[in-house]
Design a protein that fits this description.
Chain A: It is found in: Cell membrane. Chain A: Its main location: membrane. Chain A: Belongs to the binding-protein-dependent transport system permease family. The complex is a heterotrimer of chains A (278), B (459) and C (300). Chain A is mainly alpha-helical and 278 residues long. Chain A is 71% helix and 0% strand. Chain A has a domain of 181 residues: MetI-like fold, CATH 1.10.3720.10. The longest helix of chain A is centred in the first third of the chain and has 32 residues. In chain C, 49% of the residues are buried. Classes of the chains: A mainly alpha (278), B alpha/beta (459), C mainly alpha (300). Chains A and C meet through helix 1, helix 4, helix 5, helix 6 and helix 9 of A and helix 1, helix 3, helix 4, helix 5 and helix 7 of C.
Amino acid sequence: MKASRSSRMLSYAAVAVLLVVYIVPLLFVFNVSFKSFTEYLLDPIGVVQSIQWNNYKEAWTQGNFADYFSNSLLYTVVATVLTLIVSLFGAFPVARGYVKWSGFIYLFFLLSQFLPNPMVAQFKLMLALKQELGFVGYDTKLGYILLKTSGTGIVFMMFTGYIKAISRELDEAAGMDGCGYNRYLFQIIMPLMKPVIATGVILTAIGIWNDFVGPVMYLPSPDNYPITFGLKEFRGQYGNNWPMLACGIMIVSAPLIILYTFIQKYIVDGALAGAVKA
Amino acid sequence: MVKRLSAVLLSSVLLLSLAACGGGGNGANNEAGNAPKNEATGKPASGEKTVVKILHWKQENINKAIEEINKKFEEKYPEYKVEYTTTGPDDEFKQAQRARITAGDVDVLADLSGMRLSPKEWTPGAKVPDWQQWIDSGLIADLTDQPFVKNYNANDIAKAGTYKDKVYALPTGKVAMSGFFYNKEIFEQHGLAVPATWTEFIKVLDTLKEKNVVPIVVAGKDVWPLKLPVFGLQAKILGGGDQQKWIEGVWKGQAAYNDAEAVEVLDKMKTLQDKYIIDGFMGIDYATAPSFFATGKAALIADGTWDAPTIATANPDLKFGYFPIPATEDAAKNKSLVGKYDVTWYAADKGPNKEGALKWLEFFSEPENYTSYVKAAGFLPTQDNIQTDSEFIDKELSPYLSGDFELAYEILMINRDNVGEHLAAEGVHTEYLAPGGEFKTAKELADVQQQEWEAAAPK
Amino acid sequence: MKEMYPFGKGLARYVPLLLLMLPMALYIVFYFGPSVMTVIYSFTDITNVPGSKMNFVGLDNYYDVFFAGNSGERVDSIIRTLYFMFIVTVVQNGVALLVAVIINQRLKGDYFYRAVFFLPVVLGVAVVALVWGMMFDPLSGPVNQLYDVMFGYKDMFFGSFTHAFGYIIFVQIWMYMGYSMLIFLAGLQSVPKDLYEAGYIDGTSKWQSFKHITFPLIAPSFTVNMLLSIIGAMSTFDIILATTDGRFNTRTMAYDVYKETFRGSLQMGLPSALSVVQFLMILVFVVVAVKQMRKREVEH
């Protein structure tokens, strides 16, 4: 589709304006993160005069990021991997019709997007689990991970859509060769699903790494705090030390930004498969 | 088939190992390595360290003092290990408090100003507060026969620790909050004296303004600091100075939120907000406000006496004092402070470690430990014969604290259920009158408040 | 519908079902079950006080949602939620579609633009709220200085009774525009090029070709986006929690549910009833939206 010169110019101009709206806030925070508190008070907006690398070191210790970081890493990695696995266990047989009532099961799982907010009873459930079992439920790492693991959400739907596009003949050929179900899923199907898995990884990881509401409800002990709680350490207690807070923001967001840059090229393909075909 | 089964097994092993991992993490939290089961049933295994779980909110100076006490406690009683958790204040704390007590996962918990809001015979249909529901359900330990209760002033225990003739809570300190810190140097520089009447007060503020000094700073973004001067106005103006009478009157229909006295309260605060409080105060948060005052950017700050240690730390050279808001033209009436009980301890009756909780409270209540706590917190002590060695308390506050301790509106008032946002949380919410708020006059807000009050009447 | 199962016979046929039970169990235990229980709770006087009894109270909680003293505030929250949903759905999808169409004409650096616009989704609500909290700080934030220079005006942003909600809507759209854009982009890329070329030969105008060729083909992504923003906007409370914490006239239904559950009274019937009302409203809007969209989709 060839657009005229003037409309192309207009397009670039529109994108440029939006880029400013998207990039400036992030650059601003980045810039502040290198300022000393005094410099920030004198001139919050100007380009940093003397770069304070120490800010990051200080923020890392003040925000207790060392502990929180490893907690969040555990939650994110385990719950993301589990989500992908159980979503595959759900999506494949449903997409293929290898279980009875697969159409009904698909709808039942889809319902998860519309159900009434389960917050009230979920909270009671987590408390009951803690009291009855102890190792799972309220204020346990496992309880939180299981709560965050879902085989019925957006990942399940994307997987189902994508698997439908994979030829059924492949199943049959593999079956003839005596390939087992699980080996087929993990060694043959999964490699074919790279784009949609990449999308699933990033969407799931975002939801867990950045979660701050869930931990407020379900992880009250400092030993279980996730990385987002580190940001709270800078509020109030240190009189809203914005440069420290800016460092905290950079620390919290860096890992996902790195993950995102590595797998972002897959994401449009994944979104295409999941969102539209499902 | 074997392969398939092994795959199933593998996945279940994966799940189980996670379970172990979660359980292990939990054990590590306890340090003593109690089996999680034990923790739930509350029977510590003998010979091992047992954990005392304390829940409190974040307030740096107090937190540090309590951590010190915890350290000493663990030294003296090596069989205990204290797990001291702090959350953000207010709603966040309330949320944690409820979750923990519902989960039976706390031994000692703090509450702000104990035993308030309990329905009285003049409050038909009032909501039963959390603490009362907990006590009624047997979740809070009865402290009546604990010897350490005797360490506290009997009047304070009766006022803020007793329910149905039994002691359930330890009020650990009082704070006054109906006044302003003032910068003595700025006052001297402009030849100003501490005002004793409302007219004098306005004169002082006008002078400051003329000299291009910002008169008052207050942390409007957090909203509650705006209540502090209002407490002073309410205590001196409502019911002609008998606040309790006015409050009961509101319930009985003999007083109203839009009567002359209530409107006067709102109107005086509106005057301050419109003319004398720093521009953009609704954007200043509580953590930032003291720095405005401590660096001389404002001559006064509306804040509670508990913040004196914070202000002193922010600028050790600053000379500051405190005076009650001169609410009326009657200097004698104005000359006292209004306050509340602050941190109040409860012990959970069904927590994992009640015995440890009582031990900790006993240790905390020892005069030596209590003194270090009260000093750090900046509270007025609730134990007798405690030397706070605080020049601020002895010189600045004591002149205004003779006679019985006057409680603030938010402690005395009991709201009707579903009372509406303009009266919510036992407040009168002058933030709605702030420049840019939705009400242009005090009367408009007062009328809405009275409407909401009437709409909340039990049917 | 039974399909030939190629991976063995006999017991082996049950392996897929067995494994399917994992997502099923997680779903039922942590989501579906609690959801159903919440509906049941909405007819009771259940409390969060351990050991208290639960009685059925019929529709009392629903009555309280709408008619208890000063429930006007909850009705205000509902109206505010609708307003939020409407603006977010229209503006977010409008901007996203425009950006997707622009980017899709193979501008230089399109991968970069895509990445940048999606970045806020990656950052998450807690970080985004803080970033804009700094930008919108009334005292030291750059936006207020810009306002001052340009219009000689200063705002209180998240501390303003009249403007706070508007700024929250802005941040919400800023955050999720990239997500909608990506879905549109995916749809646009599935439009076969030759369809356009055919259009060009016929001499159709740009708007005509968009209306008659592109739009019907991206209708599925349109539907998905509409649903995502309707459901998303109706259930969002984290951004409110992180910016104003419900102060300054910014409470929505979802925020009320959270607040009543964790910070209100110990009675859990009311928040349960609120959840159900919220669910019914989402249902109505989703059904309406789907019906409207279906009319436009072309079979393919």
